[in-house]
Amino acid sequence: MKNMLTTISNALCRITGRNVGAQTVSELLIDLSEYVNVTSLATPTLAQTLRQPPKPPPVGPRAPAAAQLVSAQTDRLDGPGTSVVVSRSFADFTSQATFDIKKCDVHRLEEAPPLKAELTRDQGLQYYRVMQTVRRMELKADQLYKQKIIRGFCHLYDGQEACAVGIEAAINPSDHLITAYRAHGYTYTRGIAVKEILAELTGRKGGVAKGKGGSMHMYAPHFYGGNGIVGAQVPLGAGIALACQYQGNNQVCVSLYGDGAANQGQLFEAFNMAALWKLPCVFVCENNKYGMGTSVERASASTDYYKRGDYIPGIRVDGMDVLCVREATRFAADHCRSGKGPIIMELQTYRYHGHSMSDPGVSYRTRDEIQEVRSKSDPITMLKERMLSNNMASVEEFKEIDVAIRKEVEEAAQFATSDPEPPLEELCNHLFSNDLPLEVRGTNPWVQLKSVS
Amino acid sequence: MTVSVDVRFRRSDWLKPPDLRRVPAFSPAEDRLNMAASVRCFLRSGKNAVSSLGLRGIHKSSAAAAQMMVRDALNQAMDEELERDERVFLLGEEVAQYDGAYKVSRGLWKKYGDKRIMDTPITEMGFTGIAVGAAMAGLRPICEFMTFNFSMQAIDQVINSAAKTYYMSAGRQSVPIVFRGPNGASAGVGAQHSQCFAAWYASCPGLKVVSPWSAEDAKGLLKSAIRDDNPVVFLENELMYGVPFEMSEESQSKDFTIPIGKAKVERQGTHVTLATHSRYVSFCLDAAAVLAKEGIECEVINLRTIRPLDVECIETSVMKTNHLVTVEGGWPQFGVGAEICARIMEGPAFNYLDAPATRVTGVDIPMPYAKILEDNSLPQIKDIIFSIKKTLNV
Predict the structure, then answer these.
(1) Is the pTM of this model over 0.90?
(2) Which residues form the signal peptide (chain B) (predicted)?
């Protein structure tokens, strides 16, 4: 009973901005009654209050009044530019908050994405969970690569998590997405389990492509990889958008590329046709400032990537803020869905690792620069701090999530290192779709291998 | 999987089950060491077996003074040619400030600066066209593709703008350009990064296509390619970059060139001719060493140039050995081996064959990623040995 009293009075303090909580139940009830502006109720007797738990503040027609009461007190609350809405539950935490997000520069657009984003507690925890999973998964891949358990190419996504998570938060699973080779994060957000991703990196039969694709060639429903040739995925994305338009299914395609690929000719060919035919394609440039070892200034005559579509409208977005990415993507997707044609989104982001695992990443940029981004703009830290300072979750909760994710990634790595390699029988399969089995020449004329669809 | 295999060929070698207790080890450093060791082995045993065929002007008794990796030989070739002729320049992705994606152009930007060593954006079609245009206007560009897989984006410029122009202009307009970069399979880079383009480029008249193996090949042939007034496609191999070779004294001269269009007999033999190029020369020499213990003497021909093919060298050899096995990493259909077999059939050597020629090639599939699958997608030494024995019917 005392606990409940303390809990409720603490909650009331946070809501109303008072410093001193109710010490007795009757005080509490007086506070509550003030809060809900009840006039006719008599002060309950002590006996009554002892017999039953205090009534929750009535909702419904009273709620707007309560909200007004609350909003008048916002200057007493923590965090600049936030307002708090009371939830129906007794949870200790604020269940929803609105945050200011950075203004997006626009090109050829009358409107822009909103300057405020609403975030519920559940959403916040979800975004945190997904971003942290991607982060830990990529770091695990780094570890496995250094142990030579992963080989070949490995392009890591840590630092850019807000892009993948923000985009996924704004589109539907039935929408489409295609990206280049820095694809592990998107493979996860598009629905593939960590263990299948890691097992693909280690080349095992439990991998999402049965070990045949590797890091750059992972696929999922409505996720078209994972593409090794710089820029080639963009016309593909426009083609997927064409299919959406053709089938009239109100879906959009998000077609991603990097600042290095932004100079590719085939992009401009795709832009032209997408604009001409008003394809529902969101072209997204993930500008992480370096195309392999070449900084944007050394590669592009114009680094305003959101304007490079010329006649295609563009938005420039803070890619380190998951809420900013989400709002901009929503805006962009709505633009496409309304039949206005394609749109370009430039996400300004940063990768902590080098271009790939064979690039230390410090010959063309300073360690100071990397450190600065890590300390000032890390997407996961930013979200966590926002939620903590608005009392949307506790430090312990985040720790619990971290522990759970660590366990998940560890188990996935365990699977990825113990699962067997694909059997040799698989070697020649999947040459053709829906075709009769055929014989495939091996390394010499006496070896004919079997291939099934 | 149905495998028609000679029963004398040990099945255990072919289908070894994966060891689940041990993670598959992949050690490029180890691989390089092993390869280097076998090459050194060959060099020690085979130096006196080097034939004079194709080795114009090189003394048999020359003492090899230095060891050099293929990467450094390429670097030296470019350095010497950049110094010799100021019309020569290098362009490509990451060739300048990054020192080259595979460090082949290390130090060149520091030495020659922005004008001669140019970093390009990731736009193959564009910069290849620019390079060809520069060649047309009197410069001598070296156009680097980070791998030849990316040259597919630019292949129109290579074929239509570079290869055919001298012909179309009836000799008015030459295109002195070198397209170079790593070709073929690497290690675990997947289907889009492992293709061999030797056959594709070699089918085009107007192009020269060169495929060096050793460091000496690399240096001599690259210098020839740069000095050649025609478009040359120079196919390197990433896995060979770090392999050291002994360099003869002649090869250390700044004017050392190896003529394009001449093959080299790396090992003399009497029983079978192995015609091969690039990395597979190493494999063939290893296979030959193994078979020598069984009394089978293989003649190993390092093709060095794919187009124009040194058919005469192969014919001479086949007329001596009566058996031919071609070995390559590329796909079988319409490939280098297929061309060699066709040319042998059309020439005098056909009558000297005691058995149909055999092609050893990559498996006819896109390159898988998983190590066990990748290993079984390319010719291994045991496949070469097997094919030789089948051809010889032993």
Answers:
(1) no
(2) none
